[in-house]
């Protein structure tokens, strides 16, 4: 099944990249605030049971995909 | 005194580590490819060098932390063996959870290559015992992700247990935001684990140990290790 993991910096973590992009958007005259940049990971995980596939994706997050000091993830089974 | 220097694809400070430990200090220094599963017999110190292991993919140090050799580095650390991680080596130790925290992108978003001053916060470690608390030494930094970060509660714990080994400071040892090149919380440049046998730092002491290369600011750490290991 197709799984999409969205990794975002935790709210308290400074995101200088997001800040730089926000300033760039301001430079074009766009009114934006709180720009945060994350990472989107898509993968094919074998299995037919969505709950089981999601649990396996969660284990992948815990082991490698997410650094809990600075990031959090949301998992979507498509 | 035997030193193992793990080498990952993308390591680029491994030869600096080999030169400092082998040529300058005269220690028996052995490069160890990341695919190896055992450190050389009788390894006293593991020196994880700087660079861009695995191209910094995913997060700096995240993939290297899973390399085959790292399981034996963890065993070595668990048994009280010394581990020093510099720059990318520090990032790898954090990702391997041998040290707390994470190194985020520099607050300026830029790669910074500059000389900085460090103040010794802990002089009772095998890495610092030849120095005194409050001593200031000059070493280079060269990184884009050195912005040390921890959850506020964990940062308070780290400070309370004396986990900070080195802090960025002025040439006269003053502490303050103005002297922190990368945005690191509390100006933290290097930390140790609870047991005091694993140290990670962003600056490069191994680049400033050979008088022929013009500066010797990093020698205090190597002299400390020499004394610690001579004592056994």
Structure commentary:
The complex is a heterodimer of chains A (78) and B (232). Chain A has two helices and three strands, in the order βαβαβ. Chain A has 78 residues and is of the alpha+beta class. Chain A has a three-stranded antiparallel sheet, with helices on one face. Chain A starts with a strand and ends with a strand. Chain B is an alpha/beta fold and 232 residues long. In chain B, 22% of the residues lie in helices and 25% in strands. Chain B has a nine-stranded mixed sheet with strand order 2-1-3-4-11-10-9-6-7, sandwiched between helices. The longest helix of chain B has 12 residues, at 219-230. Chain A binds chain B through residues 12-14, 16-17, 20, 64-65, 67, 69-70, and chain B through 58-59, 62, 66, 94-95, 100-102, 104-109, 147, 149-152, 183.
Main beta sheet of chain B: 9 strands, mixed
Radius of gyration of chain A (CA) equals 16 Å
Distance between the termini of chain B: 9 Å
| Portion of residues within helices of chain B | 10-25%
The helix-and-strand class of chain B reads alpha/beta
Largest sheet of chain A: 3 strands, antiparallel
Assembly form of the protein: heterodimer
Q: How many runs of DSSP E, i.e. beta strands of chain B?
A: 11
SSE succession of chain B: EHEEHEHEEEEHEEEH
Structural class of chain A: alpha+beta
Q: Strands across the major sheet of chain B, in which order?
A: 2-1-3-4-11-10-9-6-7
Tally of contiguous helical segments of chain A: 2
Summed over residues and divided by their number, the pLDDT of chain B gives a mean of 96
- Per DSSP, what share of the residues of chain A sits in E-state strands of 2 or more residues? 25-35%
**Could you say which overall geometry of chain B the principal axes of the C-alpha atoms support?**
globular
- Roughly what is the average pLDDT of chain A, rounded to an integer? 94
Physical arrangement of strands within the biggest beta sheet of chain A: 2-1-3
Low-pLDDT residue spans of chain B:
none
Q: Can you give the helix content of chain A as a percent range?
A: 25-40%
